[in-house]
Amino acid sequence: MNTEKKSTTKSRENTESFIMISKSLIETKSLGKNGELDVYHLAIIKSIANNFQGVAYTGVTHLMRFIGMNTEQSKTRTRTKDSLLRLQEAGHIKIYEDFTMENMTNDLKPANNYFIKPTGKDEEWGFAKVFYNDIQKIVVMKSDYKPKIFATYLNMIGNIFYGTSNIPISYTKIDKIVSDTGINRKSVIEYLKALYEEEILNFVYFQINNSITKNYCTRWIHKEHTSKWAAQQAEFHYKTSHKEFKSGGAGVSDERGVS
After folding, report:
1. Do 133 and 149 contact (CB within 8 A), yes or no?
2. End-to-end CA separation in angstroms for the chain
3. CB-based contacts of 68: which residues, under 8 Å, 6+ apart?
């Protein structure tokens, strides 16, 4: 990639706001049964906390309403409340009753809002950039599985590295996402296709030889570069000119035979 294109890529990323999600949270399966829900809630809270205090004024019902959940279901309210308490217990947020933020609370009343401060725990050891535009698109998706979609998204973009010597592309394997999230393979493919259809992530794939088909992914903002960057990466990984690949195309393949 030439200097002009590097500059264009960097300037585009610099025009967008983003939050940081610790890479320790990418393996949602290790966080427990509702790990993907907890990480999704953390991302929403961090996006709301984009102010000079770094605090989200929200609560169980407000958070549910914000992400389009039915606030009348007591079971769902309990799940949301428990998720917030797990995040606090794990040290990722601190929940306060008033703006002085002197005393944390564990007594969450669904109708009340609280001052919730993300701590940035473990981010110094590595983080994924999650852009507001992407979060907003996921929040408004017509799906009952948005926490799982977000977990799939986070796994894919968690391996995009930003810097002067890197191109912002990911080639995380489908099987790696399955392993990290515990989501079944068929659903992971479905969620990746949904992220593509909603213009959140752009995908191209190459059939390298008779046995390997591989996906490459960028954020949608870089869709005009995806094919070129992917070809460069595939040539490097498989020591084969892209002109010798069996086939390729836009969208998500099932990646059978990936090595």
Report:
1. no
2. 26
3. 139, 140
Nearest-angstrom CA–CA distance, 105 and 114: 9
CA angle (123 as vertex; 139, 68 as ends), nearest 5: 15
Q: Mean pLDDT over residues 164-179, rounded?
A: 90
Residue 84: other Cβ atoms inside 10 A:
23
Q: Which two tokens stand for residue 133?
A: 């535009």
The pLDDT assigned to 110 comes to: 94
DSSP 3-state assignment of 98?
coil
pLDDT at 189 over 90: yes
Q: Please name the helix (run of DSSP H) or strand (run of DSSP E) that holds residue 85, with its range, or none.
A: helix 74-89
Q: List C-alpha distances in Å: 16 to 96, 121, 258.
A: 29, 23, 33
User: What are the pLDDT digits (tens) for 77-113?
Assistant: 999 999 999 999 999 999 999 989 999 999 999 999 9
Backbone angles phi, psi at 34, to 5 degrees: -110, 30
The pair phi, psi for residue 136, each rounded to 5°, is: -60, -40
pTM of structure: 0.91
